């Protein structure tokens, strides 16, 4: 089990490039470090979080390249006061890793939500994320909102 201030990893932790990339991504998000986060992703990466149309991606086409990922960061990650990741399970095979977890987000006003989700990371030959798809339902997340 890996535990840090913002990441609890109770899942399998066998070495795997996609699993390691996912862990680097969570760490950068927890630290609020956009520059570090972008180093985890390939220049032509595609991020879908959540998959399909959402408040972060009305057309459901994903965020493309570092420019698109940076825009996503400023819209969805930067406004959050704190992220806490709990990874319950992790399945890695080939160049892919699927993590099952819960992310608690705390807003500047002290309110918070919990998101249960599956995050699928595909890495390229350099071990950088080529694709990340997060499967979660915004309505279910908003139903967990607690006031600060």
Distance between the termini: 30 Å
Helix/strand order, N-terminal first: EEHHEEHEEEEH
CATH class category: Alpha Beta
Which overall shape is indicated by the principal axes computed on the Cα atoms? globular
Query: What is the gyration radius calculated from CA atoms?
Result: 14 Å
Number of helices: 4
Low-pLDDT stretches: none
Helix content: 25-40%
- Stated plainly, the CATH topology is called Nuclear Transport Factor 2, Chain: A
Averaged pLDDT, please? 96
CATH architecture: Roll
Strands, count: 8
Walk across the major sheet and give the strand order: 1-2-5-6-7-8-3-4
Biggest sheet details:
8 strands, mixed
Number of domains: 1
- Structural class computed from helices and strand pairing: alpha+beta
Strand content: 35-45%
